[in-house]
Design goal:
Helix content: over 70%
Oligomer: single chain
CATH topology: Growth Hormone, Chain: A
Order of helices and strands: HHHHHHHHHHH
Mean pLDDT: 89
Structural class: mainly alpha
Low-confidence stretches: none
Distance between the termini: 53 Å
Number of helices: 11
Shape: elongated
CATH architecture: Up-down Bundle
């Protein structure tokens, strides 16, 4: 189903999306890797996003890697696993339709903070419902966990703001390096989250073939829901000092447009 849906969409993007290139030469010479890395390290807003993104990805993968144990052993309703996971996917499907309006109204910073808090709250509710939770409430809670998982999408949108902020602050645009660093944060989060959940299950005593008692059911619930909730709440901390609000970005973009115009005029006079 994914292939049938995605291939026409990818072909449409290839055939109908046109790139608009602004002919402004920011650099007179190729940028060395050391210069690129130095510029990134001087961009605190990007570094804050990287930390938050790593924590958020770790939270997501911690749950994804252990959720089957939750359905089978904690809830003891393996028959509902498909329904619950579909509810989560439906929530995620709605995310791209909501994010643009949310960013426009609340700005990227407040949107990231709010969605992390709401997503962490939905996970915490699932944890507090306990192993004997009403399956309908678990389905609803899983839908909201997927729906509020908007931060990753917003962060990649915010990466462009960090690129402009870096140009404003350091005189260098690093779009490729900035996106690469954000991609690296996701890979790091995947590595941490992919192993953390299973490590914690083992730490709390789960072994294949071991009888799952009431204590183990609670422990699995804690690993699958409470640990990702804690990591998701921690995502908010790096976003508190993040300064790139909608108002601030208008000021920065205006300054950068002036700098681009001056540079373009100099290049034109040299030519």
């Amino acid at each position: 189903i994914y292939i049938i849906v995605c291939i026409p969409l990818i072909l449409c993007s290839f055939l109908f999306c046109k790139e608009t290139v602004v002919n402004v030469n920011v650099f007179d010479k190729p940028v060395k890797f050391s210069e690129s890395l130095g510029s990134l390290l001087k961009n605190p807003m990007l570094l804050l996003l990287v930390v938050s993104s790593t924590l958020g990805t770790a939270a997501s993968l911690t749950r994804v890697g252990t959720q089957v144990y939750y359905y089978q052993y904690s809830l003891q309703r393996a028959d509902l696993a498909g329904t619950i996971m579909v509810a989560y996917q439906v929530g995620q499907f709605l995310v791209p339709f909501v994010v643009p309006a949310l960013i426009k109204v609340a700005g990227k910073k407040m949107s990231m903070i709010a969605t992390n808090l709401l997503d962490g709250g939905a996970l915490l509710v699932l944890f507090l419902l306990g192993p004997d939770a009403n399956p309908i409430l678990v389905v609803i809670g899983s839908f909201f966990v997927g729906f509020f998982a908007m931060t990753a999408l917003i962060m990649f949108s915010a990466t462009s703001d960090c690129v402009e902020y870096g140009y404003y602050r350091n005189g260098q645009r690093m779009p490729g390096a900035s996106v690469g660093v954000m991609a690296m944060s996701i890979k790091l989060g995947l590595a941490v989250g992919g192993s953390l959940g299973l490590f914690l299950l083992g730490l709390f005593g789960y072994r294949q073939g071991v009888v799952v008692d009431e204590v183990m059911r609670e422990n699995i619930n804690f690993v699958v829901n409470a640990v990702p909730a804690i990591l998701t709440f921690l995502c908010v901390i790096p976003l508190i000092p993040y300064k790139l609000t909608n108002k601030r970005m208008k000021e920065i973009n205006a300054k950068n447009a002036e700098a681009d115009a001056i540079l373009a005029s100099r290049n034109a006079s040299v030519d």
